[in-house]
Design goal:
It contains 19 helices and 25 strands. It is globular, with a radius of gyration of 24 Å. The protein folds into 3 domains: 53 residues, Structural Genomics Hypothetical 15.5 Kd Protein In mrcA-pckA Intergenic Region, Chain A (Roll); 167 residues, 2-Layer Sandwich (Pseudouridine synthase); 221 residues, 3-Layer(aba) Sandwich (Rossmann fold), CATH 3.40.50. The strands form 6 sheets. Strands 7, 8, 9, 10, 13, 14, 15, 16 and 17 form a 9-stranded mixed sheet that branches. Strands 19-23-18-24-25 form a 5-stranded parallel sheet. The protein binds 2'-deoxycytidine-5'-monophosphate. The site of 2'-deoxycytidine-5'-monophosphate has 11 residues, from helix 12 and helix 14.
C-alpha cells in the first residue's frame, strides 16, 4: 500500500488542477473515489484507489494497461482469493505491471478452464468488453467425452434454459483436426479419445459453457477460450502474458474510447465553438421492483452494467437466510431464531459489478441459493416481519455513495422509498408465463405451460396480499411497460430513465 495522500494533492500532482481548483472539483461532486463521491481533504491511496474526475480515471492512458494471458487450468481468475494458491494477476511479470495498481481480469474464466483472459486496470475498457450491449463474442475449444447427438446440438443452438435466462451458442461445430492438433501442442496436454468442438457465445454468464453442456448431458473434459472478440489466443504459450497493441486494444474495447487524461478531454475552445461544460453526473440510487418473473434481475443487472453502477438483487438475501435455516435445521417459520441468522449473511461483488456473491459465515454460498428446498422455504422467510426488519439496514447500507440499482419486491416502497429513481417493471401475467415457459423449452399452451401461468398467478396473489411489504407500485414510480419490449429495448428504457434521473440531479 502506498502512503495515503490528500485528494487535492493527488489531483494537483496529476496536473488536473491547482490544489484549490481540486477542492472546487471535489465540492462540485465531480470527483469520485472508487465510484463514490470524494470528500474534501480525504486521504486516498494512489496505488489502490480509483480516482476519477467527471467519470475519467485520473492517470488515464499513462498508467492504463491492457494485457492478454493464456491462463493454465488450476489458477483462479479472481484477484484476491484467500483460498487460491495462485491467481491470474500473480502470473503477470512486474515489468508488464509497471507498478499499476488494481490490475484485474476482464470477466472470469473458472479455475478449471484454460485459455485467453484479458487483464487491465481500465474500467471503461473492461466494461465495453463485458457488457452484453456490445455483444463481444467468446469462442471456446471444448473437449467432450463423446460426440454430441443431433438433438443435443439442436438444443444448444435453440437455447438451454438457465437461471439467468435462455442460454444459446451462436455457433457450434466440430473442431478440425488441425485446430485440435495445434491446441494440444500449444497446451502440451493431449486428451485422447475426446470429441473437440468449437463454440461461440455472446453471453457471459458464470460457467455458462459448462452449465449448458451439463444441461444436455455432455460432460466437459477441457475448456479452452481461444478468442475474445477480434483477439485470438493464437500461439500465446501457457502461463504467458503479452501486452496488447493499441490497435488490438481499440478493436476490442470499441471506438468510443475517451481521451486519455482529464486535461486532454476539454474540447478546443474557439470563438465559434464555446467550451461545453463537462458533463456532471451524480450517480443515483435506483430501486427496481416488479412481479415474479418480470425479468427485473437480468434487466437490472444489464442496465447497471451499462451505466457503470453496482447491481443488487435483494431476493438473494432472503434466499441466503432460507439456505442457512435449512442447513442449521431452523424452522423457516421460526421468527426470532431466523433473525439471528441474518448477521451471518453478507453480499460480495462478483467481479462484474454485481453484488451477486452471497457469503454465509464468510464462505461463498452463491451456488446453493436456487435449489428446490430453498425455493420452498424462502416464501416463509420473506413473509417474516422480523427477518424483513433485520434485512432493512443491510440493504440500505449498500446504497452508500449511490450508483446502485437494487431490485426486489419492496425496494421502492419500503427499503428505499427515497430512492432517486423508483422503477417498476410491468409485464403482464400472460407475457411472463409465455416467457418463462419458453425459457424452459415448454409450449406455453401445453398443460405444463398453463401450470407455469397458474403458479405465477398464485405467487402474484401471495406477493400482493401479504401483510408485510406487499408488492405494489411505489409512489412516483417510473413504470417501464415491458410487455412488448424485447430484452435489449427494456434495458435501454431503464438506462434512459437512469440517465434522466442523473441529469435531474436526483429527486432528493
Ligand atoms: O426474486 P427471488 O425469487 O430470488 O426472491 C426470493 C424470495 O424473496 C421470494 O419469495 C420473494 C422474496 N423477496 C421479497 O420478499 N422482497 C424482496 N425485496 C426480494 C425478494
Amino acid at each position: 500500500m502506498a502512503e495515503p495522500v490528500r485528494i487535492q494533492k493527488l489531483l494537483a500532482d496529476a496536473g488536473v488542477a491547482s490544489r484549490r481548483g481540486a477542492d472546487a472539483l471535489v465540492a462540485a461532486g465531480r470527483v469520485t473515489v472508487n465510484d463514490r463521491p470524494a470528500v474534501i481533504g480525504e486521504r486516498v491511496d494512489p496505488e489502490r484507489d480509483r480516482i476519477s474526475v467527471d467519470g475519467r480515471v485520473v492517470g488515464g492512458a499513462a498508467t492504463s494497461i491492457h494485457l492478454a494471458l493464456h491462463k493454465p487450468a488450476g489458477v483462479t481468475s479472481t484477484v484476491r482469493d484467500r483460498h487460491a494458491e495462485q491467481t491470474v494477476v500473480d502470473l503477470v511479470p512486474p515489468a508488464l505491471r509497471r507498478g499499476a495498481p488494481r490490475l484485474y481480469p476482464v470477466g472470469r474464466l473458472d479455475r478449471d478452464s484454460e485459455g485467453l483472459i484479458l487483464l487491465t486496470n481500465d474500467g471503461d475498457w473492461a466494461n465495453r468488453i463485458l457488457h452484453p450491449r456490445y455483444g463481444v463474442e467468446r469462442e471456446y475449444a471444448v473437449a467432450l467425452t463423446a460426440p454430441l447427438g443431433r438433438d443435443q446440438l439442436a438444443r444448444l443452438t435453440a437455447g438451454v434454459p438457465l437461471e439467468e435466462g435462455l442460454a444459446r451458442f451462436l455457433a457450434i461445430r466440430t473442431a478440425t483436426a488441425t485446430e485440435t492438433g495445434r491446441m494440444e501442442s500449444l497446451t502440451g496436454i493431449r486428451t485422447p479419445g475426446a470429441a473437440w468442438y468449437r463454440v461461440t457465445l455472446a453471453q457471459g454468464w458464470k460457467r455458462q459453457v459448462r452449465r449448458m453442456l451439463a444441461e444436455v448431458g455432455a460432460p466437459v473434459l477441457r475448456l479452452v477460450r481461444v478468442r475474445i472478440g477480434s483477439l485470438r489466443l493464437d500461439d500465446l504459450a501457457v502461463g504467458r502474458v503479452r501486452p496488447l497493441s493499441a490497435a488490438e486494444r481499440d478493436r476490442l474495447g470499441g471506438s468510443d474510447r475517451r481521451a486519455a487524461s482529464v486535461g486532454e478531454r476539454e474540447p478546443a475552445r474557439t470563438a465559434e465553438a464555446p467550451a461545453r461544460a463537462p458533463l456532471r453526473r451524480r450517480q443515483v440510487i435506483v430501486s427496481l421492483d416488479g412481479p415474479a418473473a418480470c425479468g427485473k434481475s437480468s434487466v437490472g443487472a444489464a442496465a447497471a452494467a451499462a451505466v457503470g453502477y453496482r447491481f443488487c438483487d435483494t431476493g438473494v438475501l432472503y434466499r441466503a437466510v432460507a439456505r442457512l435455516a435449512l442447513d442449521e435445521g431452523v424452522d423457516p417459520a421460526a421468527g426470532p431464531a431466523l433473525t439471528e441468522l441474518v448477521p451471518r449473511v453478507t453480499l460480495a461483488p462478483d467481479g462484474a459489478g454485481r453484488l451477486a456473491r452471497v457469503l454465509i459465515d464468510g464462505h461463498d454460498a452463491t451456488d446453493r441459493l436456487h435449489d428446490t428446498a430453498v425455493d420452498r422455504a424462502v416464501s416463509a422467510v420473506a413473509a417474516d416481519p422480523a427477518v424483513r426488519a433485520a434485512l432493512l439496514p443491510v440493504q440500505r447500507a449498500l446504497t452508500a455513495g449511490g450508483g446502485i440499482v437494487m431490485a426486489g419486491r419492496d425496494i421502492g416502497t419500503i427499503v428505499l422509498p427515497d430512492a432517486d429513481l423508483r422503477l417498476w417493471l410491468e409485464v403482464s401475467l400472460d407475457e411472463r408465463a409465455v416467457r418463462r415457459a419458453r425459457q424452459r423449452g415448454i409450449d406455453p399452451r401445453s398443460p405444463e405451460g398453463i401450470a407455469i401461468r397458474d403458479d405465477l398467478a398464485r405467487r402474484d396473489g401471495l406477493d400482493r396480499a401479504r401483510v408485510v411489504a406487499p408488492l405494489r407500485i411505489p409512489d412516483g414510480a417510473v413504470v417501464v411497460d415491458a410487455d412488448r419490449l424485447d430484452f435489449d429495448r427494456t434495458v435501454a428504457a431503464v438506462v434512459r430513465a437512469i440517465r434522466a434521473a442523473e441529469r435531474a440531479g436526483g429527486a432528493r
